[in-house]
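In this section we walk through a basic example: taking a raw amino acid sequence and producing a predicted 3D structure, encoded as discrete structure tokens. The instruction is simple. Fold the sequence below.
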Amino acid sequence: MMEEAYKQLWTAVIEQAVKDAQGHVTTYAYRERAREWFACEDEGVGSLAWICGILDVDLNFIRARLAGRVNGASRFSRGAQEVFC
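The resulting token sequence is shown next.
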């Protein structure tokens, strides 16, 4: 039961980050921070890679799906050097 609750929580984190990256936030800074989070290669607790591991979903699949929905799609492929985690 607790495991399912954790999965729901981390799924909600990704869903909110998608909304933020798409610009459904009040400031440009939040949008950019969400996009940076999706591009980040960090594997620590709370990172996209860590969450994908918990949810057993492919990190690159998530990034590819998001890239199709957001302007500036190349930002999620780790091609941007200015990304901060």
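Looking at the output, two observations stand out. The helical segments are 2-21, 28-39, 48-55, 59-67. DSSP finds four helices and no strands in the chain. In the next section we compare this with other chains.
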